[in-house]
Amino acid sequence: AASFGLKEQRGADVLLEVIKQTFAFNPGDIEAASRRLQDGRRLLASPLPCFSVSYPHDYEVLPVLAEALVERLR
């Protein structure tokens, strides 16, 4: 059976991931960069839990991963 990792993230780790996972069409656009930082700050201030997820390149594990997320959020 394929395994996966599910780890709750908080604080600076979340903000860094938001920045890493967003695409800057124009890296010189300071206003867009500021909006990305503000989005990250709003995410940190929200009650929404954030997780890092790792899984093998095996899409068959996705239903199991989805169920684990649902259980974790209940």
What would your notes on this structure say?
Helices cover 51% and strands 14% of the residues. The chain is built from 3 helices and 2 strands. It has one domain (5-73). It is of the alpha+beta class and 74 residues long. Strands 1-2 form a two-stranded antiparallel sheet. The model has no long low-confidence stretch (mean pLDDT 85). The two termini are 25 Å apart.
Key structural traits:
3 helices; 2 strands; alpha+beta; 74 residues; two-stranded antiparallel sheet
Query: From the alpha-carbon coordinates, what is the Rg to the nearest angstrom?
Result: 15 Å
> Major sheet: order of its strands?
1-2
Give unreliable regions as ranges.
Answer: none
Q: Looking at the structure, what is the overall shape?
A: globular
Q: How many strands appear in the DSSP assignment?
A: 2
Number of helices: 3
Report the structural category: alpha+beta
- The total domain count is 1
The string of secondary-structure elements, in order, is EHHEH
**Biggest sheet descriptor:** 2 strands, antiparallel
What is the straight-line distance between the termini?
Answer: 25 Å
What level of helicity do the residues show?
Answer: 40-55%
Strand proportion, as a percent range, falls in 5-15%
Question: Taking all residues together, what is the mean pLDDT?
Answer: 85
